[in-house]
């Protein structure tokens, strides 16, 4: 009886999942395959501040014709506020206003962009010659010396800019550059030096686009006018031209954010790369469709980034269930492998593996030392948590020093779980010996790698995020696996001794 | 690596892990009765209420401040065993065969001093050996005097007999002998030798170590198939009684033979392992289904044991009266 009802539930889950996905595919034109549509960057600027019970006016500089991109949609989400976009051309601003507000406030501005190859050869009117720059007496000599040195090896505004950046960024800075850099930030100093040399330039600010990043801030760059066009320079590397995936957000004009009636204002940016047709975007915005309530795109961007990962967990859970019930792999901790697999997704495989083995290995060594101290369990695990945090910090710092990796996302490895794994494995070591630790450790890693291999498939990532209802089908499969009472694959080896039984 | 086909296994009626969990452990063992077997102290109290003999309990230590006074209670020259109440798989059991002055002698001959004993008890109280690290109680029991029958069959540890009991019927049994490889422990996966026992007579059927058949004890070279457990029916009755005692339908009862007191129930397991099938050269499934399909279920213990000896014995007709 209870078997029958279980099969009903399984059937119902599969049917619901499939039909919902199909309806949403038809009604909302969500493609089943990733990458078949144009990529869309959705960028969200989040302005937060504390209002002080006075009329509030917040004005944020927003992009207009950023090189390399085309804006096709923008919107603001800030209930209770009046919103309008003022100004035009290179000085466009989003303005929020409200009669009175109190407490912490959050304003959102979202913009959607597609890649758009820049039309070259667009001529600009030359800007006014730069104003005279005022220097402190010792600085003036230093500035002149730098311009002279750079000028000797250059012929055009571009080459002069490159030479100045070279002088400012060499590792052993010459005295003049060092003196000026104590006073000015690099990009400011660059514009001042160029102005001194009579070349118009300005500081622009933009963001590097990377899928799923949250809480990003703007990166300053310098634009130099070279006779008939503006050219972007990276003041740190000297790279010329707009870097790949760099969105110019704020260009010239007054400040990035003006606020009256509030304090501690802060702007941060979240971004996400979507492969959804523009048609769906349009429908989401006029969200009256009955099936769009399942769409993850309604969520704030930083949460969407979280859900992109979260919705992959059912797939990992299915892999674990399969590996344990059908294959019979022994792992340490039931769902530990899924979490390791997810961490690999964020760190990418090889660095993730190295980090994981290094941290667990070192942790085990230190733990064996702890066992001499005769600590109570809770204290021991707490100590291991701290050891793991220290190890991760050291590893990240070392990686950045060596320059082969941009450091590990700290949240990637679930700290407490690693600490528990170390504790369990070391107890296992003491009680059952090294062999059992190896068996379970290898088992966990193998299952984690399988889960990782599945979760990183673009098609699975696409389906799980755009069709969250498909997870019902995974749930149904897991329920079915839970009914399996046959032999595990490894048991066929374990019971092999039955073959030569003496009668 | 050698493999066996799932159809052959099925033909032999081998019980697999998934089926054990699903069709027996989950179905016949109510979760709320687990504490009775997971806590040795509770098992012991229950056993004495049901008249099931267990090793004599001297005293328990349940608080850290009592640890300091333990030594006075132990210095009478006799051997004892310290066990964690919530330990599993023989973890945290310390066996002391005797004491001399201020030092204690382990069964392996190693000497321990008072502080070692105290530290071991503190570790037990802190939950080092208990499931999930919960605080625990230490039991101090009399040691078991090994039956001379087992002389030369065991390395250091005392052999124990595992009987699978299903709905009160003894189903299958094996003798577990500690070896040097298993470090004096009776756990098969650590290298102990398992000897399958005939349900009718308690006679050894075949022996395995590390999943491979062996004929002689690896340390003492004594032939393993000549072993016979005396007073077999009494032992099976003892195991079967654990069903009424715990209310668990599918258990493994571990029983030891004491030279003076005869069979004693050592501990119970609500998730007994599957290796017993290999030491017996036979699957559990047929026997379990035979009991599941029984119509009359109001037999008393004696009838159940006789029925099992008759039905599951290899040497039929030789059942002892």
Key phrases:
heterodimer; A: 503 residues; alpha+beta; 16 helices; 47% helix; globular; B: 321 residues; 13 strands
Describe this structure in words.
The complex is a heterodimer of chains A (503) and B (321). By secondary structure, chain A is an alpha+beta fold. Chain A has helices at 2-28, 137-152, 157-169, 175-183, 186-196, 278-285, 301-310, 313-327, 336-347, 349-370, 377-402, 415-432, 434-455, 458-466, 471-481, 489-494, and strands at 40-52, 56-61, 69-77, 82-86, 93-98, 102-115, 201-208, 219-225, 230-233, 246-251, 257-260, 262-274. In chain A, strand 8 and strand 9 form a beta hairpin. Chain B is an alpha+beta fold and 321 residues long. Chain B has 10 helices and 13 strands. In chain B, 29% of the residues lie in helices and 24% in strands. In chain B, strand 9 and strand 10 form a beta hairpin. Classes of the chains: A alpha+beta (503), B alpha+beta (321). The interface between A and B is medium-sized, with 28 and 34 residues. Chain A: The chain crosses the membrane at residues 6-23, 306-327, 339-365, 377-400, 406-425, 437-455, 470-490.
